[in-house]
Specification:
It is built from 3 helices and 3 strands; from the N terminus they run αααβββ. By secondary structure, it is α+β, with helices and mostly antiparallel strands. It has one domain. Strands 1-2-3 form a 3-stranded antiparallel sheet, with helices on one face. A hairpin with a 2-residue loop joins β2 (105-119) and β3. The longest helix is centred in the N-terminal third of the chain and has 42 residues, at 24-65. The radius of gyration is 29 Å and the shape is elongated. The termini are far apart. The model has no long low-confidence stretch (mean pLDDT 84).
Length: 135
């Protein structure tokens, strides 16, 4: 009986040692979602960089117009168009920017969407909203 107990103990320990690590299927299950997230990040990076340029252009336009007399929606749009040209911004277009007067100051609002295709018919839709006030 003593000999068979040793064999069972040895088998039990051998089974534990043979199940160490991650199998190939386990690696695939781990890496596929990580790869999809990394790929989505790569596809979204240019869209967010464009948004940062839009936000910068709106802020610079507001700063330039600050304190100027005779500011109109058209002068703000022309200034914004120059910034968009310098920054190479094609989306949104300057005519899509809402520029209007609120009480005693001007407000420019960039409210737009952009699409990042992933694969097949799957895409990521990103919505942006940025306001700049000219006081």
């Amino acid at each position: 009986m003593h000999h068979t107990q040793r064999i069972h103990r040895r088998d039990r320990h051998a089974g534990r040692h043979s199940q160490r690590g991650v199998t190939l299927l386990g690696w695939i299950c781990l890496l596929v979602p990580v790869a999809i997230v990394v790929y989505a990040g790569i596809r979204l990076t240019p869209i967010y960089l464009n948004y940062m340029r839009v936000a910068k252009s709106l802020a610079e336009t507001a700063n330039e117009a600050h304190g100027l007399d005779g500011t109109t929606a058209q002068t703000l749009r022309n200034s914004l168009e120059k910034h968009f040209d310098i920054e190479g911004i094609t989306k949104p277009e300057t005519r899509e920017i809402d520029i209007h007067r609120e009480n005693d100051h001007w407000v420019a609002i960039a409210d737009y969407e952009d699409l990042a295709p992933l694969f097949g018919n799957v895409s990521l839709l990103v919505q942006f909203h940025k306001e700049a006030e000219v006081r």
